[in-house]
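Lab meeting prep.
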Amino acid sequence: MKRLMAAICFMTLCYVGTAMADYSATVSQDVTLESISGTYAGTSLYAGYSSTYGIENAILLYNQPSIPAGQTITDVTLNFDVWSLPSGSHPLTVSSNPNITWTPSSVTYANFGNANDSLISQIANPAVQWYSVDVTSYVLSQLASGNNAFTFVIGTADESQLSTSAYYGIESDRYSGGIYASYLDYQTAAVPVPGALWLLGPGLAGLVGLKRKYIG
């Protein structure tokens, strides 16, 4: 009986698929987009408002990593490190943008199309720490549309209403050799093994027959 149950469990696992895998994608390029001064490509990204530089948004581009055959994406998170805070508390926003062909040298606040930003998440009271934001829906929708790149915009909800400088500092891919650079984290699950799909029914039937033979 124990052997019978063990065999059934093994075949069920082969059919359903329970293996989990973890993949990641580092940022392809990032830059701070400023409404007054253009762009800033230093070792930090900024999100908020500066009386000198205007509205500041951190924009980040990622390319889809190679996910092995037999794995299906279940969860994707955007991870980034906030290292400095403004004097007041301002909600930090994470949005997506359909522009996936921009480059740090050519993008401007005017041609990027911030009006096309689509809010993904809002952090009410940010602190100096790493954040992990669920971006699964956006990534899967992009992949379903045949797009293998993703643009994220990190800003503040009330950036256009600020009258004094108030912005967050976010680590870029250029800080300390990319050690603190933002990244996408993928969780995947194994899909059913085709061979096991065909063998599951006959296999179980055979095992049941063996049980009856030995019991009878």
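Slide two material, second protein:
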Amino acid sequence: MTEAEWLACADDDPMWHSEPLWLKVGARQYQLYAAACCRRIWPLFPDRLCRGAVELLERFAEGACDRSALEQAEEGFHDYIHNGLHEGLTEAQNMAFSAAWHCVSEGGYRLASLVADNCHRADRESRGLKSGAPGWAEERRAYSDLIREMIGNPFRPALVQPAWLTPAVTSLATAAYEERSLPSGELDLARLAVLADALEEAGCSDPDLLGHLRSPGPHVRGCWAIDLILGKQ
């Protein structure tokens, strides 16, 4: 995949198989991508078990809990099936249920791939989207845009100069990262725009970095620009 293809790609599957992506993605990004995919279909989760699994994955990605917490949550899914609580779910809810289950049972590329696939299917099923129908391409592109939100442009990775990281910049970046809209998980556009202004005042002239922070998004945790400023891996 070339740089031009990466920037224009409207299908997340070939992007995950792109070599530049594999050279850059870490476990945290896979985890936050999976959680962000799930938040796109939040209304389709049948109960608290599923929503809790997504929230737990986010905490795990941030180092706020360990693997044993995911293992314990996975047991809840086994009990759910064993007790027949899945019976009566719609097809879209079943796909959403599977996406949440993968959040606590898988890792790495497999986590991102399986969760995204189930979220795609849940989204399409809930809206009755068929291949080629109006809305199909937009739904597919939303997930590829989400990859670019977290990875940026792997062909031209951005760099941040220490001089740009003033107390105001780091404070604004931290606030933008921590304070998000729920359940969508989206970051506040106004906060990101103020952060871009502060970066520019600190001497930053990188058009990719400033442009991303000022773009309409949606932006979520794992945003490559915020991660770069805060030094998150």
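Talking points for slide two:
The chain has a mean pLDDT of 90.
The radius of gyration is 18 Å.
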